[in-house]
């Protein structure tokens, strides 16, 4: 009578396959967690930019053609924004660019929005 079972080599190969699969799963989960923080920052930065756009529209006057800087508190963090009006081909419209950074000295903004206002 022959005993049915797995050899030691087969068990070791199966464990190696499961170990590689486990490492891939852990790396994937880690990448998702780190990406989540970045997406959260971009979402808050987008809300800050939307707030600045709404404030400029509610002012009821043309946005300045030079950059205007400021900061805003949201979600326990300080966000650094700047906006500028941009002349368009149509004199009754002006573009409004808003940029938001997580740090004042960041070279590139997290979010850049453009909208148009008319007078």
Task: List the keywords.
single chain, 119 residues, alpha+beta, four-stranded antiparallel sheet, 1 helix, 4 strands, 44% helix, 29% strand, N_methyl_site, T2SS_GspI_C
Q: Into which percent range does the helicity of residues fall? A: 40-55%
Total helices: the number is 1
| Rg result | 27 Å
**Could you state the order of secondary-structure elements as H and E?**
HEEEE
Structural class per helix/strand content? alpha+beta
Kindly report the average pLDDT value. Answer: 91
| Distance between the ends | 95 Å
Main location: membrane
Subunit structure: Type II secretion is composed of four main components: the outer membrane complex, the inner membrane complex, the cytoplasmic secretion ATPase and the periplasm-spanning pseudopilus.
Subcellular location: Cell inner membrane
Membrane topology: Single-pass membrane protein
Topology, pairings included?
Layout: H1 8-59, E1 68-74, E2 77-87, E3 93-101, E4 111-118
Antiparallel strand pairs: 1-2, 2-3, 3-4
Characterization of the model:
Its main location: membrane. Component of the type II secretion system required for the energy-dependent secretion of extracellular factors such as proteases and toxins from the periplasm. This is Type II secretion system protein I. Residues 39-117 form the Type II secretion system protein GspI C-terminal domain. This protein has one helix at 8-59, and strands at residues 68-74, 77-87, 93-101, 111-118. It is an alpha+beta fold. Strands 1-2-3-4 form a four-stranded antiparallel beta sheet, covered by helices on one side.
């Amino acid at each position: 009578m022959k005993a049915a079972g797995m050899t030691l080599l087969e068990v070791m190969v199966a464990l190696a396959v499961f170990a590689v699969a486990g490492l891939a799963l852990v790396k994937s989960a880690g990448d998702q967690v780190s990406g989540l923080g970045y997406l959260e920052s971009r979402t808050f930065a987008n809300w800050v930019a939307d707030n600045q756009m709404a404030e400029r529209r509610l002012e009821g006057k043309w946005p300045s053609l030079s950059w205007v800087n400021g900061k805003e508190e949201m979600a326990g963090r300080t966000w650094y924004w700047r906006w500028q009006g941009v002349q368009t081909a149509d004199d009754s419209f002006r573009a409004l660019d808003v940029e938001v950074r997580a740090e004042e000295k960041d070279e590139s903004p997290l979010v850049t929005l453009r909208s148009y206002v008319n007078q």
